[in-house]
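Let us begin with a simple case.
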Amino acid sequence: MRASRLFLVVLLLLVALLAIPGVVSAGGWAVVTLDQLPQGLTAGAAYPLGFMVRQHGRTPFTVEQIKIEAQHQTSGQRLTFTALPDETPGHYRVDLLFPQGGEWAWGVKSGLYPDVQPLPVLQVAETGSGIPAAAPKPAIPVGILGMGALFGLALGAFFFVRRQVGLLAGALAAGVLVLAGVFAYRLLTVSAAASIPANAAQGAGSIPVNGDLSETGQQLFVAKGCVVCHVNDRALESAREISVEVGPNLTRFPADPAYLSRFLESPAAAKPGTEMPDLGLSADEIEALTAFLSASK
C-alpha cells in the first residue's frame, strides 16, 4: 500500500514538472527597456546603467537580482554583472565595468523569456583615449625653485646679521624673484589642469551615433526592447528568434510618421485600448524611432 502511494506521489510530481515549461512558454516572457543608450564608456571606469523590466511588456517585474552577460568581440572575454532593484517597481540599476576597450556584445537575463535579451553592441574606449593632452610644464621642477627661494632667504638673513645692507638687498631681491617663479609655476600647472574638459575622463567610447537618425532609431528599437514584442528584420539579425510577436510585424511598417510620433509619445492617447505601454521616451528618441520605422517603407 505504501509503495503504491509513493509511486502515485512521484507520478504527480513528474506531471507537475513536465507542465512547468508549458506554463513558462505560455506567459513567462518580459521586456527589458534601457533608460537611455549608453554613451561615454571607457575601459576601467564604472558606468551606471538603469533599466525597466516589464512582464508581458506591461507589468513591472521585480526579483532580488538580474544578471547581465557581456562578451568581448575580439578576445572572447566574458563578464557577468548583477543588477539590483531600486525604489521604482521593476526598475534596476547596475555599474558596468569593462577591463578592455573594443566592442562588447551584451544582454540581460531576466529569468523569463527570452533567456538573454540582446542589446546594441557597446563601443568601449581604451583608458585615456579622447582626453586632451595637458599643456607642457616648465622645465624647472617646483622643488628646485623652492630650494632656491629658501637659499636666497637664508643668505639674506646672513647678510642682515652681518649688517651688509647692499648684499642683503641683493639676496632678498633674488629670493623674491625665485618665489615669483614658484608662484608662476603653480599658476601654469593649475591652468593646464583646468583646460581639460570635465567630461574628458569619461572617454570617447559610445554606441556609434553618427548623426543618422534612422541608425540611432535602429539601436533604440533594440535598446528599448521593441524587438521582443515586434519582429523587425532590419533591427536585429535574431529578431524572429526572440520575438513573441504580440505586436504587428514592423519590418515594413506603413504608418504615417506624424501618427508614429503621437503614438510613441502616448500610446493610449493615440490608440485607446492598445497593449503598448508608455516607455517614457524623450522627444529625441521618438524622432529617431520614427525615422527608423518610416524608413522601412
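The second case is a distinct protein. As before, the sequence precedes its C-alpha cells.
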Amino acid sequence: MADRAVAIYRNPRFSPQRHLSNDRAIMDATVAALTDLGWTIEASDERQIEDGRVPPAALYVNMCQGPVASERLRAAINGARAVNPPASVLNCHRHRLVELMRGSDLPFPMTELHDTATLAREGATALATNGTRLWLKRGDVHAEKPEDVVATDATGLAAAAEQFRARGIGRVAVQTHIAGPVVKFYALADGSFFHWYFADPADCADVDAEALKALAVRAAAVAGLEIFGGDLVVGADGRPVLIDLNDWPSFAPVRERAARAIARYIHTQARNGHHRD
C-alpha cells in the first residue's frame, strides 16, 4: 500500500501579494515530488483546519501559519507526524520568536515587545534614543502587508505605533537596526538544502556561506522548525546576525530544486520514524 499523507495549503490571508501564488506553487511542487516517491496525498486547506475539520493521517505536510489552525492541528494530530510541527509554526509568531531568541546565545538584535496603544501614546522605549534607527514590526504573525514592518526612529516611533494600533494590531516589536547587507535564505533542518542571496542585488560583500548556514540551522533548531527561511544581516565584522525566521517560505527563486529536497527530507524522516512535537 502506498504511503498516505495530508498536505495542508496555507490560508491566503497569510500569503500577501505575490506570495499567494508562490506559496501554493511550492506546495504543489512538493506534493508532486512526494507522489513521485510513492506517496498518495490528500489536499486540505488551512481554513478547513481552522473550522476543526482535520483529516485523519499519520503524516501532515503542514503549511498552516495562523494561530487558530496551528493550535487545532496540534490538538488533533494525536501522535501523528507533522512537517513543520504546529508548535514550531507558533514559535515563529514574532512575540514568541523574540523571547526564544533572547533566551538563546544566538546573535539577534536588541528587541522589545510593547502594547501598541501604550507605545503610541507614550512613544517611549529604552531602545528609542536620539539618532537610533529602529524597526517597528507587528508582534503576532509574520508580515501580511508591507506596512507590517516599518523603519523609524525615536521621533517617529509614536506615530508609527499609532498606525499599527489603528489597524487593530495590539502588540508590536521594536528592534534596533543592524547595519550591513541583508541576506535572505531558504533551508532544511538537516542542512541538506541551503540557498542564500543578497536582498539587494547591488550588494557584493564577502560572505562566509557556512557561517550563514550554521546560524540559520541553529536558529531553526531553537524554534523546532524543519522547513524554513529568514533574513540575516552580515555585520561589519563579517559575522551574521539573525533578524527574522519564517516557517515554510515560498522558496520561489529555487522552487523546483527546493521541492525535491523538501520531499526527500519528508520521505526520509517519515520512513525513519523521526518525530518532533
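The chain has a mean pLDDT of 92. The chain has three domains: 3-86+253-271, 110-176, 182-250.
Keep these points in mind for the review questions at the end of the chapter.
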